Structure formats: C-alpha cells, structure tokens
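Final report, section 2: Outcomes. Of the targets proposed, RNA-binding protein KhpB is the one most frequently requested by collaborating groups, and we therefore present its record in full.
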Amino acid sequence: MKIVEKTAKTVDEAVELALKELGAAKEEVEIEVLEEPSKGILGLIKVKQARVKVVLKEGPSQKASNLLKQIFKSLELDVDIKTTENEKSLLVDLKGHDLGILIGRRGETLDALQYLVNLSVNKNQETRKKIIIDIEGYRNRREKTLQKLALKLADKARQRGRNVVLEPMSSQERRIIHTALQGRDDIYTFSEGEEPYRKIIISPKK
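The predicted structure is given below as tokens.
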C-alpha cells in the first residue's frame, strides 16, 4: 500500500501533487485532509498550508500479488509473478525453479491456491473478478491431457457398451471433459457424487 502526504496552498493542489507522485487517478485513491489551509491575519498569524494524506487503493492484481508474495516467502520459494488483467478476469502466471510443490497431485495444490486467492481478493467486493493461477503453462498442458483422456475413455465406453467412471476431479477439470465430448452422438456424460469426490460418468447411448 502506497501512502503519500503533501502540503500546498489549497487542498486541491496538495491532492494533485500526491496523485502526480503516485501516478494515479483520483478514483484510484483514498484522500484524507489532515489540515485545512488558513490565511494569515495582518501578519500576526502565519499562513497555514493544506496537508493531505493520499492512499493508493489496492486493485485485484496488487492484492493477488501481495498475498502470493507472503505465501511464497513463508515457503522460502523464489517465484516470479506476472499478472494480466481485464474487466472480468485476472490471470496470474508463476515462474521459477522447482515449483512442482505448488502444483501438487493433478493440480490439487494449484487449485487450492487459486481458490484461496479468489476468496481473499473478492472479499467485500461488489463485483467479483475471476482469478486464474497458472504455473509455466501447466493448465494448458493439463487441459490437452484431459481432452485426450476423454476421447480415449469415450471410445472405450462405446466399444464395451457400458459406463466408464473417471476418478474424482475439480469442477474446472470436469468441465473440460464434458466440453471435449459434448459433440459425440454415441455417448453422453454426467457427473455424480458430492464435492470433492464428484466424478464424471461416460455412458454409451443405447
């Protein structure tokens, strides 16, 4: 969080000086007037300048980065954090050495980290922003693996004429399976069970 205090003849001038130093627009900051300006009287009372405190608000990108830095510091991990933000979502790409610990088994640790950051950044916000955390292209590689698996198991279900039950997956990974097979007219998919043990069933059409 960046905080700047400035003095000037008027409150507006002091605020402008602070905004210039922060490189921010007025809507991106919180302004507190510490002292109102006053005029001297006949040279007996000195002129008092306006003094303001301007605080730069943390946006989703900054909040996510700060939280992740704290986590990585406690884990003694050296991680480079790059963020790409648009109106609806924030992509956080992590790079570094030996980051497998942050991915975990089938991405479970990465999903948990993403869930935690989403909760923290969107807390008390009127508009929620979807935050996706990736590590050196892992999610893209995992998506391709799941798409290949879906096609292979769909063929298996059709050939054997009976259901194929996949292991429990996150909602994000189940969506990849459903999407990969939604164009097939020889099988259909559905999910059953409760989180976090919800799984996909691939069933041949009779």
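Residues 60-136 form a domain with the GMP Synthetase; Chain A, domain 3 fold (CATH 3.30.300.20).
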